[in-house]
Specification:
By secondary structure, this protein is mainly α. It folds into two domains: 199 residues; 37 residues. The chain is 84% helix and 2% strand. It is built from nine helices and two strands; from the N terminus they run H-H-H-E-E-H-H-H-H-H-H. A two-stranded antiparallel ribbon has the order 1-2. The protein is globular and about 65 Å long.
């Protein structure tokens, strides 16, 4: 039982690391919707993504052949990573363009049910791309489906809890949104390279982006204190 709990903890950790990418994707995609519909899109997207991932886990025999070559020297996994990486690059670059051109408000104001369905579909698609490696790793670590499903469920609750506040914070600060989009560009490149059998250590991505985030947060704190100090100096009561 202790071994099962240790393995469950390990898999939850893997899923939560994956969740960082998911939270950024969800924040950017739901930002295209009106404020009142963003929570529903997050819940629906994560719910369908959870269902899709559990179906993948239950199809253990099918997943066993994911790494077998099916086209040239590419496997099903490679093709999914190549397509997913290109799609994420396209979406991230497109969102950077929209942000720089200040098109978010017009897009959100004109969002329809079709836009809602498209956002949910894109969240599910990219979750599958992000999760394929963790699913294969989990199956390699254990053949007990309940442990893997338990890890997925626990991480789902954590991501659902944090996706809203983190996403709203990112969308409320344009500089952080640009930084998040740049992060998604690097993730897209990494996923594409993985599909070409070129391994890119995740530390090469997370450490520089973490440093950039820390610098940006320090800059935001500096600006906040500078504005507060200027307001205090201008107050005639002081």
């Amino acid at each position: 039982m202790a071994d099962a709990l240790a393995l469950l903890s390990l898999l939850v950790g893997l899923e939560l690391v994956l969740g960082v990418d998911n939270i950024l994707v969800i924040a950017i995609f739901v930002g295209r919707l009106p404020t009142g519909r963003r929570k529903a899109a997050r819940v629906a997207g994560l719910g369908f993504a959870l269902l899709a991932r559990i179906i993948m886990l239950l199809a253990l025999l099918a997943l066993a052949g994911v790494t077998r070559t099916v086209f040239l020297h590419f496997s099903v996994r490679d093709l999914i990573l190549l397509a997913g990486g290109l799609f994420l690059l396209y979406k991230a670059v497109r969102e950077i363009h929209h942000t720089m051109e200040l098109k978010e408000e017009q897009a959100a104001a004109g969002a329809t049910m079709g836009g809602f369905a498209a956002v949910v579909t894109q969240i599910v698609m990219l979750d599958i791309v992000f999760s394929i490696d963790s699913v294969i790793t989990a199956i390699g670590l254990t053949d007990q489906a309940w442990i893997i499903i338990g890890a997925v469920m626990i991480s789902f609750v954590a991501i659902l809890f944090f996706a809203g506040p983190i996403g709203d914070f990112i969308l409320a600060h344009p500089a952080l949104k640009i930084l998040a989009l740049a992060f998604l560009v690097t993730i897209g490149v990494t996923i594409f390279m993985e599909g070409l059998h070129k391994h890119v250590p995740k530390a090469y991505i997370y450490l520089p982006m973490g440093f950039a985030l820390a610098v940006e947060l320090l800059q935001m704190r500096y600006e906040h204190k500078r504005v507060r100090l200027a307001n205090t100096s201008a107050d005639p009561m002081e």
